[in-house]
Design brief:
By secondary structure, this protein is α/β, with parallel strands linked by helices. Helix content is about 30%, strand content about 25%. The chain contains 13 helices and 26 strands. Strands 23-25-1-26 form a 4-stranded mixed β-sheet. Strands 2-15-17-16 form a 4-stranded mixed β-sheet, covered by helices on one side. Strand 8 and strand 9 form a beta hairpin. Helix 5 packs parallel to helix 6. The longest helix is centred in the middle third of the chain and has 14 residues.
Length: about 425
């Protein structure tokens, strides 16, 4: 099992290219199930989660090619021969549930295993199911699978989410494109990945209005065509690499970065004394002499501070001047990285959904264990600011969401090495 060794103390300088968004790509890929014509995605990231979704789509009969050498992912679902998303694949990744809406909309039936993924809270699929029921789906949960059917096809309806859900919004948005009549999605998620999905579906011929707001309206069409669509830059990878120079000093330009993707995060960085500047090619982040300042952070649905950057932000605040408070409002059990940071000398007190971080002057390298995707990279970031070596174990989580992290950080002067045990 791989581990990553980080030797702290180096200032960073240079450029880091930001890949296409994992969460957007994982949403766009199931859209191929809505059409018999090819869907091509450019700027696709090379990640293990993308490989898992590829395997799932192929198991349904879709053709998926490309990405080995470039960033172009070509898909075609002209000959689907299976409507069962098996547990052995779905258990690896929660985004697998996103094949449910498209399969149901296109062919009127699907059997999809309940999904797995990172252990960061319950994250039930209830909202997905109630949304599809509002479009006329008949659902039965048994033996760990969702058995879904819509014998006469899906029908437009009104979907009002009791709480904001990105995945449920994506699932019902795709399903509604082929439903008869008008669908109104209220309390819809507003994340950039939702807007990116809507742009792609519109290229395929869907009639969608209101993405990026709390109300999305979809007028169903009889069929969708093929399209070519560029995947939006990954705002979580962007925020992660922006934190690298903020934590250990220096100046790094994140190529492809845009402030509107993570404005609330940028505001918290600047409040902490970190400079964020727009450039012709992206965003430049710099930290001069001295430590960052303590700031308070509350995670919220977009356009608020992203929960997927909470662990990385905590790594910065561990060495900030003063005391910071982080409130996690999206997922329970998402402070599992805190005990590992404490092993490195951090002073953190966790109570329920709140973590209080008392900044220390310097962290010390230690062997630590990654518990989930974002925790993995937060420990690498902390290692950049630590004395000596930090060994991050169980980094298979990392490869689900970050491609070539050691190469990207190494290119700007970080001392990061992957160790593979045979």
């Amino acid at each position: 099992m791989d581990s990553i060794v980080v030797t702290g103390g180096a200032e960073l300088s240079g450029q880091i290219p930001i890949a296409g968004a994992k969460n957007a790509c994982l949403t766009l890929m199931p859209a191929t199930l809505l059409s018999e014509e090819p869907l091509t995605l450019t700027n696709a990231p090379r990640l293990s989660d993308i490989a898992t979704m590829t395997a799932l789509l192929r198991s349904l009969g879709a053709e998926v090619t490309g990405l080995q050498e470039g960033r172009v992912l070509s898909m075609s679902s002209h000959a689907l021969d299976n409507h069962v998303a098996d547990y052995d694949i779905v258990r690896k990744m929660r985004a697998s549930i996103l094949v449910l809406g498209p399969l149901l909309a296109r062919d009127g039936h699907a059997i999809v295993s309940l999904p797995g993924g990172c252990a960061i809270g319950a994250r039930p699929v209830d909202l997905h199911l109630t949304a599809l029921e509002a479009l006329g789906a008949e659902l039965d949960l048994r033996d760990g699978y969702v058995h879904a059917k819509a014998p006469g096809g899906l029908k437009g309806g009104r979907v009002t989410f009791s709480k904001v859900s990105v995945g449920a919004t994506e699932n019902v948005l795709m399903a509604a494109t082929l439903a008869r009549g008008t669908t109104v999605i209220e309390n819809a998620a507003r994340e950039p990945e939702i807007a990116d999905l809507a742009r792609c579906l519109r290229r395929m011929g869907a009639q969608i209005d209101g993405e990026g707001t709390g109300t999305i309206t979809v007028e169903g069409v009889e069929r969708l065509s093929g399209a070519t669509h560029p995947v939006v830059p990954d705002r979580i990878e962007l925020g992660t690499y922006m934190l690298a120079p903020a934590i250990c000093g220096g100046s790094v330009e994140c190529l492809g970065g845009r402030i509107e993707l993570i404005a609330a995060f940028c505001e918290r960085l600047e409040a902490a004394g970190i400079s964020v500047e727009e450039t012709e090619r992206g965003l430049r982040v710099s930290r001069g002499n001295g430590r960052a300042r303590a700031v308070d952070v509350t995670t919220e649905p977009f356009p608020g501070f992203p929960t997927d950057l909470q662990a990385q932000m905590m790594a910065l605040l561990c060495t900030a001047e003063g005391t910071s408070t982080l409130h996690e409002t999206i997922f329970e059990n998402r402070f599992m990285h805190a005990p590992e940071l404490i092993r490195m000398g951090a002073r953190i007190e966790v109570s329920g959904g709140t973590a209080v971080v008392h900044g220390v002057e310097r962290l010390k390298g230690a062997p630590v264990m990654a518990t989930d995707l974002r925790a993995s990279v937060s420990l690498i970031l902390a290692g950049l600011a630590a004395e000596g070596d930090t060994v991050v174990n169980r980094v298979y989580h990392l490869d689900r969401g970050y491609e070539q992290v050691e190469d990207k950080l190494g290119a700007v002067g970080a001392r990061v090495e992957r160790i593979t045990e045979r």
